[in-house]
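Private note to self, pasted from the team thread so I don't lose it. Backbone tokens:
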């Protein structure tokens, strides 16, 4: 009887194994497809749109194994993100069905505490191998995740640009004494970052990962060279591909060599869903990559959710603010390319004037990265203002020396003619940038201003049509991000006397200027798209 039972159990095991075998064979015979997005910046209905992405993923999943990952900067950039402090975008990402996500620098724009709340709400969670707690040296978030498809293991390692400490609000990463609590493996040469990522690559390899993907918010061009995705590839080994973000480029699957001469694929999808990447691991072992740019079908459930989230703020957003008799530009009207980060523009003049006039200061500076949208002619509403000024920083006024102001302008122009979010639009100020003079700005390992060790490329600075005096005191208006918190590395203002600690939010100050100083009409004084000659370029 015992022998019969044993044989019966053995037979059952064999039958069960045979029954299960087709399931694993079926999975092994499927292509594995990785869809990836980056820098959505709340553009859930822009270009392709999240509803179409969700439907595309659903249809692909019928005959393939599909994963969807995001490389950061999804939850900030439009009123929907701002007013919900990211929560509406997290809900939409959950419904679309993300499997892996990394925080970009703007995921922290609502504070570190708020990010922690949102990380718990995101179904797939956030991952970053190089966000460390300085007290413990341990990662704040899980560094990687491994997916197993019938024995084929794929590892995804998350990474966030070390520039986050200066490109998001620095105070969010500091304790009450101004000491940094968090570390993104920053350094002057990138070696600390490379070492941290290599350790994680080696770890997932030890765990049997056959394919290793770095989902990174690094960028290719316009970022510090040693933090770029290209630099990371050339200083590590073992990666299959880097799915990148941060620099808003569309990179259609280029091949770069790692430090051992092996090919690593690099892809990036632009911004606001201009495209999304599709990497296919074929059953024969080959890899295909393409950028998907046009879709028509949409997922009804995602459409419904977006409509509901927008409706919650619709009445507030539609309130009229004023009328623009001329268009206001952050983008070049001739080419459509962004100019607010590399030269003067009419929207930059308008915003800077708002800060200076309302706060009644000698001058005002506005970092180009803080101004995000044009205005068309006609009536504009609160939604339009939030599109242009989405960050919600407070406006402050401080007292500075001429030297501090000169240093800030020099820091802002350090990357010119390349664009930089630190490039300053100004009011009450005029200056020239001489690009024939190499930048000699010295920065610390976090990217903070540490001085200038050579000739200044910023010249002919005037305040109120009078030459800047290095030792003179001036009153200066701007955002708390720049003047108080040292954003974009502007630490030259540290210790400056604060005259108005919180005059109002950027949007409130802008609206007050338009309604109370321009009688709600933006007129001919801002008609020139390239500004009124405040910034001269050479």
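Design output:
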């Amino acid at each position: 009887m015992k022998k019969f039972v044993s044989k019966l159990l053995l037979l059952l095991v064999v039958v069960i194994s045979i029954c299960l075998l087709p399931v694993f064979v079926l999975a092994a015979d499927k292509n594995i497809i990785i869809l990836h997005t980056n820098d959505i910046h709340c553009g859930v209905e822009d270009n392709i749109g999240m509803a179409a992405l969700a439907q595309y993923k659903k249809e692909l999943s019928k005959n393939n194994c599909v994963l969807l990952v995001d490389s950061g900067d999804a939850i900030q950039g439009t009123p929907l993100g701002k007013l919900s402090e990211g929560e509406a975008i997290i809900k939409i990402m959950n419904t679309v069905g993300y499997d892996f996500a990394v925080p970009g620098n703007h995921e922290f724009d609502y504070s570190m505490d708020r990010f922690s709340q949102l990380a718990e709400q995101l179904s797939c969670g956030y991952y970053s191998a190089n966000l460390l707690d300085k007290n413990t040296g341990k990662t704040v978030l899980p560094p990687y995740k491994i997916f197993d498809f019938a024995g084929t293991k794929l590892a995804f390692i998350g990474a966030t640009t070390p520039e986050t400490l200066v490109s998001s609000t620095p105070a969010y990463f500091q304790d009450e004494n101004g000491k940094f609590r968090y570390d993104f493996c920053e350094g002057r040469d990138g070696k600390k970052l490379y070492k941290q990522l290599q350790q994680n690559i080696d770890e997932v390899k030890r765990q049997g990962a056959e394919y290793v993907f770095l989902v990174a918010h690094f960028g290719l061009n316009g970022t510090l060279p040693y933090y770029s995705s290209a630099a990371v590839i050339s200083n590590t080994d073992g990666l299959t591909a880097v799915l990148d973000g941060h620099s808003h480029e569309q990179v259609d699957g280029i091949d770069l060599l790692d430090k051992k001469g092996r090919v690593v694929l690099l892809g990036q999808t632009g911004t606001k869903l201009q495209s999304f990447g599709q990497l296919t691991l074929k059953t024969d072992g080959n890899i295909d990559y393409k950028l998907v740019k046009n879709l028509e079908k949409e997922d009804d459930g995602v459409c419904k959710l977006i409509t509901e989230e927008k409706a919650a703020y619709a009445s507030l957003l539609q309130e009229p603010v004023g009328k623009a008799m001329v268009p206001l530009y952050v983008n070049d009207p001739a080419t459509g390319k962004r100019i607010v980060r590399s030269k003067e523009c009419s929207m930059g003049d308008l915003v800077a004037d708002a800060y200076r006039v309302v706060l009644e200061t000698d001058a005002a500076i506005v970092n180009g990265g803080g101004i995000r949208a044009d205005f068309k002619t006609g009536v504009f509403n609160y939604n339009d203002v939030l599109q242009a000024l989405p960050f919600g920083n407070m406006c402050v006024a401080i007292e500075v020396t001429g030297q501090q102001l000169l240093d800030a302008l020099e820091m802002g122009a350090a990357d010119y003619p390349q664009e930089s979010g630190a490039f300053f639009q100004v009011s009450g100020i005029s200056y020239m940038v001489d690009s024939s003079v190499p930048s000699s700005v010295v920065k610390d390992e976090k990217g903070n201003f540490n001085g200038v060790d050579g000739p200044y490329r910023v010249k002919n600075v005037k305040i109120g049509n009078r030459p800047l005096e290095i030792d003179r005191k001036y009153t200066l208006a701007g955002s708390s991000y720049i003047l108080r918190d040292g954003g974009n590395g502007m630490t030259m203002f540290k210790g400056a006397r604060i005259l108005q600690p919180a005059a109002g939010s950027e949007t409130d100050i802008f609206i007050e200027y338009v309604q109370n100083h321009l009688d709600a009409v933006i007129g001919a004084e801002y008609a020139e798209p390239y500004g009124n000659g405040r910034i001269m370029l050479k």
